[in-house]
Amino acid sequence: MLNLKNYRVLIVGLGKSGIAASRLLTRSGAKVTATDNRQLEELSAEALALSSLGVEIEAGTHSMINFLSADLIILSPGVPGDISPLMKAREKGIKIIGELELACQYLDIPLIAITGSNGKSTTTTLIGEIIKTKGDNVFAGGNLGTPLSEYILSGIKSDCAVVEVSSFQLETIEKFSPYISILLNISPDHLDRYHDIKDYVNAKFRIFENQDTSDFTII
After folding, report:
1. Domains of the chain, with CATH numbers?
2. Which of 52, 96, 165, 208 is deepest in the core (most CB within 10 A)?
């Protein structure tokens, strides 16, 4: 588990995953700033409510000083990793991870991760329902809708977690290591974000990156 007490953490993007990460980090004692290039009035009520937890919210811009003064940056999957402030932060050696990687540092149950170009949500939901028929408690979420950080925050004890994982989320993993990883299929997608299909495939294949001989891979 990460020890983030008094860390200066910057959340980039205040969608569902950014909000969940902000809440988890404040509970962990971090000093959180959240930045989003949308205007303040465009942010959700859930995002604005973070200020009551002590989160400093920057809207309408990404100030370079916030990136360069952070100890850790949590990048939301919808934000490209090649924007100028992030590139400068990398040059400075600042760690950049995503909400999925953050949440996994707190996870103490087996993780089943599903990725692919098509069918991720259906497969994630189906596997969750199948496991429930055994009588097990299951968290099913991730890119499907409920961020993994929300499960950590809930305090609910499940027997396993089944998460849908996108290529965008896999870009920012470090130690993320599913007990079971499933790659359903790959077809050309998100080529407005990736240079070519090879870059997209490489992002998908990162789901296997940290698995070892005690884990399972299904392709």
Report:
1. 8-97 (3.40.50.720), 102-218 (3.40.1190.10)
2. 165
